[in-house]
# Entry
Amino acid sequence: MAFLDLNGQFSLMQNIDEIEKLIKLISKLPGLGPKSAKRIILKLINSRDELMKPMANNLVEIYKNVSRCKSCGALKSNTVGCNNCEISQKKYNKICVVESIADQWSIESSNIFQGYFHILGGTLSSSTSQRKEDLLISSLVDRVKRDSIEEVIIATSATVEGQTTAHYIKDSLKKSEVKVSKLAQGLPVGGEIENLDDGTLFSAFKNRRSIEKNSD
# Structure
């Protein structure tokens, strides 16, 4: 069955409730608005068997079988376990703390860091409803003790929220013997990890500096 092109189909699509709901949902995705959502939906409709059906099935499988690890925050398969902190073939002595899974993927793809990741799931901020309890900071402290970690590298963004979170993590680890460092040169003020290129990330990791722990 043939469908109209973008220009002819836009107004017709808005009369179908199911498509209107889908437009609103897709428009919530990063970098997408209503117009982009309509283009995506038209592509799916015109490729029902090749794209729409397998994508719908795959989304259902991901919804059922993929979740965030309660210990490290990484994505894991509910049927296998967490590759990041539970069944890693290698034992590392470093943990890199990031704000989001997107940050983890950016650093992983650069092959700069060899070690465990710990994904907080956000930052501390007075302007949002994010609470300290919502972040996986307590589980980070537990992992440091359990896995005999020697260094925690804080790779939060160079924003006010990111720096506030970094200092809170430092204070949370002050009773441990672990070295706490953070990314330094190469990370621009206000920069977010997932938007940095490999060269900038390399410089930030190479020039990381220790964070002195308070004695009180």
Observations:
- The beta strands are 66-68, 75-77, 94-98, 116-119, 151-154, 179-182, 209-210.
